[in-house]
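Example record

One chain of 310 residues, shown exactly as stored in the release files.
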Amino acid sequence: MNTFPPIEARRVLVLAPHPDDETLGCGGSLALYAQQGVPVQVLVLTRGEGVSSEGVEDIAGQRRGEAETAAQRLGLEPYTFLDFSDGAVEENRNELLGRLGRALEEGKADLVYAPCPLDPHPDHRATAGLALELLARQGGFRLAFYETYHPLRCTRLVNVEAVIEQKKNAIRAYGTSLLDAAEVIAEACEGLGRYRQFENRIRGTYEAFWEVERAPTEQEILAWCTWDFAVPQSAGVFRERIREYDRMAHEAFAVLERRRQQVRELQRTAADRDQELEVLRTTLAAVRGSRSWRLLDRLNRLRRRLLGKS
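Predicted structure tokens for this chain:
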């Protein structure tokens, strides 16, 4: 018996800023809901094309296909893709509020999963903001914030040990999304889950959530996520610091992407040179196997003998 079961729910709605966030943040819980027959709807807000600057439409299509595979591996119904541009969640806030609000009303979810409000990625924070506004406006549901790339101060732990391989297999579907490091990320997620054993001293692999029933204020969010460290600061000051971090992170990612493009160009150049070399080798082998070459070779040997005697 799982002493740390999934959060109780009749119907679940998951807000994923990009294809892969739903699996990284709460994929184990979703697999457990699927086993229990709890309806789960996953809304993927953006196309996720920003992961690469090459072939935007191709990248978006690849990430959508990866998400469809991940859904199957988690045992979930097909995801709903809202197809907004990557990086533009805040820019499309009003339209997204309307669409998410309708999804809540139609799906009658009593539990909504969303990213952490202080997640380093701006789309993640903007998605958390949408969830908080819907909770304040419409209410009628509980909100569970999930963690992706860093630990979150939590109120609930869910033991996903029984489905961790299923979750890791779903993460492996995201080759493009995770920059060809899906296996590394799968292991990292398992490691984060095992780190949570510190919380309860009970062996297992856990997903962690901050569950709220009312929309906390900015100051309350700041205090919670920083373990009350930032309480003396205003939420606005802290938010500006996070934006500065975003700017630095995006610059670093841009440099990384340029380096990756340079590596790809070098790999293509090397492949072209390998092909040229192979053609030359084939041509040389054909020449050496020809009758004319054999005759010329005999003449050369005769010439060397004659010159050696003179």
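Notes: DSSP finds ten helices and seven strands in the chain.
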